[in-house]
Amino acid sequence: MIFVKSLKAALNLFILILVSVLLIPVEAESQLGVRTEMRIPEIPGYITIKCDFHMHTVFSDGSVWPQVRVQEAWLEGIDAISITDHIEYLPHDDDIKTNHNRSFDLAVPAAKSSNLMLIRGTEITRDEPEAHHNALFITDANALEIEDFVECIEATAKQGAFIMWNHPGWKQPGNKSVWYDIQNEIWEKGWLHGIEVVNGGVYYPNAHKWCLEKNMTIMGTSDVHGPITMSYDFASGDHRPVTLVFAREKTEESLKEAMFDRRTVIYWKNFLIGEEKFLRPIFNSSVEIKTPEMGITGTGRAYVQIYNDSDVKYTLVLNGENEYVTLPRSITLYPGKTVMVSLRGKSESLTGLKKIILPYVVENLYVQPSEGMPVELSVDVRFQPAERR
Ligand SMILES: [Zn+2]
Ligand SMILES: [Zn+2]
Q1: Alpha carbon distances (Å) from 118 to 64, 110, 114, 257
Q2: Which pLDDT value is given to residue 95?
Q3: Which residues surround ligand 2, an ion (CB under 5 A)?
Q4: pTM of the predicted model, to two decimals?
C-alpha cells in the first residue's frame, strides 16, 4: 500500500508541476519579417546609407498607408526614406483629411521601432515647365501650400530643405529632360540642389550631365505609388532604385550634410551611377582575385578566379589587349560568386614573371552619362617555354 500511496503522491506532484508550467505567462514573441540586406561594399571613411526619397501614400495619390512604406523599406534593406506626398494633388481628399504633415507623423512609430530613418518631405507639384520637386528635411509641409511657385520654393529653402527636381523628362518631347529658364532661376538662387537622374524605371542621361556640370546631387528614387511588391520583381532579384548616401555618421544631420555635399550614388537595376571617386572604391572592394599568381607554359592557359562580394552583377568588356596573353572579350562577375577566366599564352618561348594587366570597361558603372568605367585588374604570371619534342 505504501507503493500505491507514493504513486498517487507522485501523480499529484506531476499534475502540480504541469499546471504551474502551463500558468507561467509565455511572451508571444514572433519573427516579424525578414530583411534582405543590400550588399554594397563600404567606402573608406563613410557609412553607406541606402535611401529612397520619393514615395506616396493614401495622403496623396498612393494606395498604401504610411506605416507600410516603412515596413516595405525595412524588408528591402533600406536605411532611410522620405514619404513625399503631393501638396497640390490629393485624389483621396474625400476620404482622407488634408494635413500635409500627417503621413510623416503616422509613419514615425514604425520607423522608430525598426530603426529606419524617416525624413520629413513633400512633393511640390506644378505643371511643366516648373514641374515637380521634392523637398526633403523640411520642418512643416503645411506651410508650403503657396500658390506662387518661386515663392513656394523660397519658403522651402528657408526651411533648410534639400530640393530636387523630379522625373525631369516626364511629359517632355521624347521623354528627354529640358533645362528651362525656371530651373535656371531657382538653381541660380541656390534653391535647387539635386535632380532625379533615375525615377522608377527611367534613367535621364541629360540630368546626369547637368548634375556633373552644375555640381548638383545625383538622385535615384522609386516614386512608388502602389505596394512596392507590385512594382518590382523581387523573386528575380530586382530592387527599387535607391540613392546610396555616403555619410560620416548614421544621423539625420550627417545624411543631410552628405547630400548637400553631393556624396551620392544611384543603385538602379544592375547599374551604379555616380562619380568615379565613389564607384572605383566600391568596385575595388567588391572584387577579389583569388589567384593572384599563376603559371603558363608556352601557349597554354591559366585560369584567373575572380570573386564578387557585392549584389551588383558587373559586366566587363575588353578595353585593350595584353602583349603576353589573349584575354576574353567579356567577363561577367556574378553577385556572391567566383568566376574562372581563361588567359592563353601568346608565345612558345616566353620566360619569367610578368605582371599581366587586364584592361576592361565595367559597362554598368556609369561615371559619365551612359558611359562605363575603365578598370585594370592585374595578376602575376610566371611563364615558361613549351618543352621541345
Ligand atoms: Zn512627381
Ligand atoms: Zn511623386
Answers
A1: 17, 10, 11, 16
A2: 92
A3: 123, 223
A4: 0.91
